[in-house]
Design a protein that fits this description.
172 residues, mainly alpha, two-stranded antiparallel sheet
C-alpha cells in the first residue's frame, strides 16, 4: 500500500489519482493554467524591461559621445544622461522581474503590478491630458483584471472550487 493512498469516504474503495497533488494556496490541488490576460501582461512587462535596458544603453553611449565634445554643457548633459540611464536600467530590471513573476504565478508580482497601476491612476489624475486619460483607462482595466477571482486563483489567493468526489488520504 502506498503511503499516499486515497480512498473513497463512502465505500472505502481505492481511488486512482491521475496527477499527484501540488501545494497551492491554502488547499492541495492542481494549479490552474495561466489566464490569457496574465500571459499578455507578463509578455508586455518582459518586452518593456528589455526595451528600457536597451534605451539606457543608448543613453549611456550618447552621453559618452557628448562628453567627447569637452564643453561645460557636454559634461552636464552627460551627467544627466547617465543618471537617467541608471534609472531606466533599474526600471527595466524591475519590469523583467515582474514579468517573470507574472509568468510563473507569483502573487508578489500581481501585487506590484496593481500598485504600479494605482500609481498610474494617480499620475493620470494629475496630468489632465489625453495621455493621462489613456493611462487612467489602462490602469483601471489592469487593476480590475488582476482582482478577478480566476486570476487571483492562479496566483494562489482565490477560492478554489470544492472537489466533486469526497476522498480521504491515509498516511502510514
Amino acid at each position: 500500500m502506498a503511503f499516499d493512498a486515497v480512498f473513497c469516504q463512502n465505500c472505502g474503495a481505492s481511488v486512482e489519482r491521475s496527477l499527484p497533488p501540488v501545494a497551492f494556496g491554502k488547499f492541495t490541488s492542481i494549479k490552474p493554467s495561466r489566464p490569457l490576460g496574465v500571459t499578455i501582461l507578463a509578455i508586455l512587462s518582459l518586452i518593456s524591461g528589455v526595451c528600457l535596458i536597451l534605451l539606457s544603453g543608448i543613453m549611456l553611449t550618447a552621453g559618452a559621445v557628448i562628453l567627447g565634445m569637452t564643453t561645460v554643457w557636454g559634461s552636464l548633459i552627460t551627467t544627466i544622461l547617465q543618471a537617467l540611464a541608471v534609472v531606466l536600467a533599474l526600471w527595466g530590471l524591475l519590469q523583467l522581474v515582474i514579468g517573470w513573476g507574472l509568468w510563473n504565478g507569483k502573487n508578489w508580482a500581481r501585487l506590484i503590478t496593481i500598485a504600479l497601476a494605482i500609481l498610474g491612476i494617480i499620475t493620470a489624475l494629475i496630468l489632465h491630458s489625453l495621455s493621462g486619460i489613456i493611462v487612467l483607462a489602462v490602469s483601471a482595466i489592469i487593476i480590475y483584471y488582476l482582482l478577478r477571482p480566476h486570476v487571483k486563483t492562479y496566483f494562489g489567493k482565490g477560492i478554489e472550487p470544492e472537489p466533486t468526489e469526497k476522498t480521504t488520504s491515509i498516511v502510514v
